[in-house]
# Entry
Amino acid sequence: MDILKLANLFCEASLKHNQFQKLNNLKEIDDYAKKNLTKIDSGSSRNVYIVNSRKALKVAKPSTEQPGVEQNKAEKEMAEQFQKMNIDCYTKVYQYHPQYFWIIADLVRPVRDNDELANLLGVNSDTMFSLFAPPTFKRKPLPANVPQQLLQLKKLVDSGMLGRDIMKSNSWGKTADGQAVLLDYGMTGQVFKDYYSKSSTYEWEDEEEDDEK
# Structure
């Protein structure tokens, strides 16, 4: 599906309309998005819809309201942190609900796989692991040519501010000018700890094997 062509079928005014901006009940917001927009992705606690050819709407699912709200809030706060650290490889957050029921961010094409991500970032999978695997893992020494942007992101991962989803290709997108950007960065260490760690749905299957190496 060419989401940019499809997005042109929808009008940004649908989200600027007072009817949407005044909605403060998550169920009503969710119903509005389902009725008026096209869903392009769905995660554990959020749905993503097309606003127009450049913007996406991320809405917390009513069934998992608090985790979705916290991920929206985390992305808004992480975007501010990226800006302070001169990191620009992320989708910008433009608007957000006062209670973080939704945020509006850049719309980009998701990266297809790890090979495409490696080509876009200029690093191989081993380097990605050394950069962004949890600090408790045994990492190989980093090569000398790692882009500064990735080293800055590594600082956030090591401090627990940014989750390890960052090393997964489906957390990244590709802009129209061919740049790799984070499109899903709401799973911070704190959000994972508060809402996902007990369920064990966010664990890597090969963690124990890697720890033994």
Q: What stands out?
A: The chain is about 40% helix and 15% strand.
